[in-house]
Each structure stands twice: as structure tokens, then as C-alpha cells.
User: What shape does this take?
Amino acid sequence: MKRAWLFAFVALFASHAMATDVVDLASSPTTARIGLQQVTRAVATETAQDGVQQRRYTFQPSAQPQITIAPAQGAWNWSGQGELHLRVQNAMPWAVTLVVDIDGRDAKQQLHAVVGLPAGPAQTLVIPLHVTSPLAFGMQVGPAKPFEDGGRRVLLATTVAGGLDRSGVRDVRLSMPAPQAAQSILFGKFEVVAGEAALRDAYTDIVDRYGQYTREAWPEKIADDAALRAAVKRAPPAASAAGVDRYGGRLDVRLRATGWFHTQKADGRWWLVTPGGHGFFSLGVNTVKADDTRTYVQGRASMFRDLPPDSGTWAAFYGNADNRNAQQGAGAGRCCDHGQWFDFYAANLYRVDGRDWLAAWRMRALARLKAWGFNTVANWSDPALGALHQLPYTRELDIRGDFGNVATGYDWWGRMPDPFDPRFAQAADAAAAKAAQGVRDDPWLLGYFADNELSWSAYGPQGRWALAVGTLHGEARSAAKQAFIADLRKRYGTPDKLAAAWGITLASWDALDATDFPAPEPNEAHPAIADDYSAWLSRYAAQFFRTVAEAIHSHDPHHLYLGSRFAVSTPEAIAACARYCDVMSFNVYADVPQHGYDAALAKKLDRPVLITEFHFGSDDRGPFGKGVVSVANEEQRGAAYARYLQAAVGDPDIVGAHWFEYADEPVTGRLLDGENSHFGLVGITDIPFAGFVEAVRKANASLRH
Assistant: This one.
């Protein structure tokens, strides 16, 4: 009984229709082996509600308790089979994690899946017998909850990694990652079947005519046009303007008036200041626009139920796009990233307001934002909203052009622009001229952002140096690379001195010109590497921020440069931003802002900080994704918002926080990268999530007191 593995024998049933191997984990005959490691097996079986016999297996607290299921002899031949089906029921009152590994003849042959088993009735867990993910269906997150399929409850492992020669399957392992207490799961029949019916069915007819997920219900879900109109047109509570100036600045915080938004530090606290001279904490919402929820339908027609025709009235809500980008990590590997799209959100707005739907939506969106306590129309929003002069707004520089770039390995939205390339300065100037057109003399404009979530660093312990390494890896024609080499030549004089300092072989300066030059990683034995890389990162960032700042101020001397919305960063980049930007902006996805960026460095640099993206999502309102920071359910979103906002307001360096974003993403993924999460203030139907927005309203209102 003290052995690590205990073997009991269970039946290997004869093949039945479409099945080649069947093992019943509830019984105990002789032609397959079950090994138990830190797992106990109940003596008696239990009868489920549907009359099926199951047996309880309890995973004990340990590093990785597991069950191993193997043939009595040799290996299984699953050639031609498409799915593994396993009868399973979580016996706990909470969700548990089950890891499924299917092992081939050697260590390189393995399929790996991680599944969240919800509490509730028994279901059939389906593991596709090949590598797959929701990206194969054009979205970032797939339908990972049980659904009814042919009278049975099915739970699909939407992501399977690895690789497997199905002709030689050594075993299947069911494990749980480091449970802190005993966790029980009931198992029944295990079998492999031909085809991929369950995988196909999981993605079939999942979106209704309104863009809603078809297999769940929630309070804001609607069934007909009348309910849609009634819910959307329900008036929000009246907005309160007490205690604030026309721009939303606090009348009790009197500061210097310049006629434009600016920054000022008073009594140890940084403020944005309204044109009238009052302290302003920017409460904003990103992407308040009616055309950001489009989703590809081409190649995925089976996912959509009752799509309107792409002719007549509905033709206006169809279009074509192409989001293929080999240099962009976001959405890489997904199918259905080009072709025809449909806009469910705009179509729903048309159902509500008819031909004048866009104008009606704009007025409704502004009324809602003010009623919910927001005072800023933040980045990527409809420009017409700012022009209505009901709320302050921001503008973004979209710096595009035929200039060089540097790969860092992160490259989520693409490679880093090369600010040493003269064409970058030209592109920045053109972008600033375009952004300032018609708004440079508008006092309602808060300021400009330039680019978003650039690849200043990469992940991992050496990620800080990725931009320096990437620069040296570039081609000889790279302007950044030549600038870096020039710096090194000036510092060391001769290549042998550089070689000695870095611990490398370097025959000549020309050797640095080689594409994919093997730049060394910093190490303790050669501290000069980190010093030189740090100096280069500082120069690179200074070149970028100085170039953009000059472009902005040449076309608009009045308004703020709000930074470039850091997601990943380095101390060098942050310091350069502080030098050239009026505000340092960070997209901070964390429980509180101070846990998501280098707040100590920001304080040392003594510059105001704007939190330009944050959110909390859940998966109980249709879209499958929970966002970057998730909570258990919709109710918890409001509490998380209030906690985050209080932490932001309590920090004297933070001058605002902007929620991402106004509307939920499509169930089947947005055009840009297939992202499909629920973190909106409103759904794809434009119906507000009542409980959440009320919690947001209360949290925002509390800041006035």
C-alpha cells in the first residue's frame, strides 16, 4: 500500500459503433491498467441522475496527483479516430481543474489539455485527438462551458497542445495541479470515437441574429426587436453637475488657469487641470464607437444563426477587411482573419433607431457616460463625440509609414518603430498634422497619445534587453543598428576592447553588421553588456519620444502629449517618457494600478501618471473570454472596479483611469485579432449591464465627496 503506484484492473470493453477502445472507470475487470498516484478510488459505485454508474476518485493534496489509464499490453492504435470521450462529474461544489495528457510511444509524442470542470451534473468531456485551439475557429477563447448536444451534456477541451502519432498510444493521464485539499471527481466510461462531431457541434449555431451567444441566458439577453428597443431606450439616471466646472473639473480644487488642459502639482499631488483652472481626475472610457464590434463571417457561416442577407437594407452592415500581419503576434495562427464581416452592434442600433441610428447612438452614449459618472471620452472613440463638446476627449497619433523597425520577440502589435530612420520623423509629423487638424484650438481636447503598447521589452528574465539585442540582430541597413554600432565604436575605440568587455569574439567592427549578429545576454561576468545595453535603450527611447513630442508641438502648441500607453516597458523607456511627455500613460491590468507598473520609479521621476486601460471581465454574459483580469462572475466586476478606482485616486501621482472598453467584443472575435471577451459597460445589443454600471456610477460619484 506504500508503493507510489497501485494497479487495479478494469474492463476493456469490445468495440461498439464508431468506438475502438472503451474503458469503464466505474468497473474493475482485467484488460486495461489503472495506476493511482496520490489518488484514492471509492469501493462502491454511485448512480448519477441519468442512471449511469460512476466511481469517485479523490485527488489528494500533493504536487500532481494523477490517474494513469493504459492498455493491459502494448499500446492502443487510435489511427483514424478523432476524439476521446470521458464521462466525468465534478463532485465538488466549486470548479476544479483537470489536466488530460495522452502519451505516445516516446516523450515527444503527447497531447495536452487543461479543462475547467464546473460544479453540477455529469457530462461527456471531449478531447480532440489532434492539436487545436479556438484560433482554428477564428477567436481567442472558445466555448469552454458544457452544452447540450444530442441529449447529452458535452464539455469540450477547446485547446489541445503538443502532437501525437495515434497509431501508438501508451497511456492517458488524468491529473490535477497541486490541489491544496482533497478534490473528488466521478468518472465513468472512457472511449475513443471516429470523426470530430463534438468539436464541430461546439462551434455550430453559437450566435443568434442579435450577436448573442445562443446557449446561455442572462438578464440582459433579448429575444425580439421589441425587447431590444425597450431595453436600449431605457433612460439612464440624470447626470449630476454639482461641484464641477463645465469640463468636469472640481470647483473645490482651484489651480492655475491657462485656457487649455495642462498638468500641475499642488500640495504634493499631481492634477490634470481644466482650461478654467480646476483640478480634474480623468474618468474615461476607451473605444466609445459604433464600428468596433465587427466580426468575420466568411468561412464561418455555420457559427451564425439567422444572419440577415448581405443585400438590401442589411448590406450597410457588411464589409470586407484583411487583418493578416506576419509581424504581429496578436491573433497569430487564427483562421478567418480576412474576407467578409458583419457588424452585429451597428445592426442592432439600426433595429432600435432606424435610419438615424448613428446620431441617436451618439447622444445616448454621451448621456450614459455622464450619468455613470465618466468625464472623458478616451482613446479610439468616435471623433464626433468630442466635437459635441459635452465631455473632454483625447486624440491618437497613428504613426504609419515605410520606415524601419526592430524585432524584440514580443512584437504583440508589431515590431518597434525605428526612430533613427528619417522616415519615422516624417511619418510622426504627418500623423501629428492629421491628428491636430480641426482640434488644435479646441479647449475640450485633453491631449494626444502616440502609438499603443509598443514592444519596449519582452518576457523572461532577459526581456529588459530585448530591444538592444533585437537592434544588433537587425540588418546592416537598419538605421538603429548603425546608430548603436556608432555608439559602441565611440565608447570602445577598437573592436578588441569591446570583445574583451563583452566576453565575445569580434574580429572587426564590420562583423557587427551581420544580420542576426549573436548579441550576448548580460551576465555577471561581463557587466559592461548590461551597461551598454542600458545606455542604448535610453538613447533609443529618447529618440522616439523626442521625435514624437516635436511633431506634436509643431502642429499643436497648446495640448498635452499623454505618452504612448506602456504595456511592457523598461526603466530607460519610462525615464525618457518622463523627460519628453507631459503625462506618462500605462495600460495597467491588475487588481490595483500599483501592482501593474513601476509606481516607485514614476514617483521618483515626479511626473503625472494616467492609467489608460484597465478592466475586469467574466464569462457569464455571452462572450467566452474573461478579459486580461477576470473575476468569478458579473456581480464581482463592480466591486473590483470600485477597489481599483479607490487605489488610483489614493495615489498622488495618478491623474486619471480609463476603462477598456465601452461595448463587449463579439462572441466570435473582433476583426483585429479575434479577441472575444466580456468586459464592456454594454453588450453587443447596446443594452447596459445594469448591475455593473450601477456599481460603476456609485464608485465614480464617490470621488466627488
Q: What stands out?
A: Residues 527-555 form the longest helix (29 residues). Residues 1-19 have pLDDT under 50 and may be disordered. Residues 235-280 form one domain.
